[in-house]
Amino acid sequence: MKKTSLSSVLMITLAGTLAVAGCKKQEETAPPPMESTPAPAPMSEPAPPPAAAPAVSVTSVTVGTTAAADKSVAPVAMIGSKDKIIVSVKTDGAATNATLGVKLTYQDGQVAGEQTATLTATGAETTNVEFSKASAWPAGKYRADVTLDGQPAGTTQEFEVK
Questions:
Q1: pLDDT (tens digit, 0 to 9) for every residue of the chain, 162 residues total?
Q2: Rounded to an integer, what distance in angstroms lies between the CA atom of residue 136 and that of residue 133?
Q3: In the 8-state DSSP scheme, what is residue 82?
């Protein structure tokens, strides 16, 4: 058998170690993660809400002197001087605490009566506003104007007191 010297064994071992180390894939070192804060979102003003359609609207206005059980009022063009004047306002839609205003105006522009009612509705409704006077209504032409939350609503109704 052949004798191997200790120096030969050491040389072979060293060469093998170097070969293994040389073959080993060098690990890529990733650069440390950079701490960065994300860019802030662009500032924009919030969009204004879309214009809402009125929740409740006046569908008709009628002036008369008597109301039926369903609150309907037969329209009249002539009212007696001692009659009660009823302004019947039909509305449709939903409302909570909407203000319905009714104003009677005499022919010379003088306000003959004015009242408000609070509406809380969920559909078609009729609200009757009554005007009466201890003395007789002055003879002449009158107008009934309706407002809803301060805005003109419905059609102005004209009638005459005889």
A1: 455 555 554 456 545 554 555 555 555 555 555 555 566 655 666 665 554 555 899 999 999 999 999 999 999 999 999 999 999 999 999 999 999 999 999 999 999 999 999 999 999 999 999 999 999 999 999 999 999 999 999 999 999 999
A2: 6
A3: T
Planar angle of CA 149, 54, 61, nearest 5 degrees:
65
List the structure tokens of 131.
């005007």
The secondary structure of 113-161 as a DSSP string is EEEEEEEEEES-EEEEEEE--SSPPPSEEEEEEEEETTEEEEEEEEEEE
> Residue 30 has which token pair?
């990733």
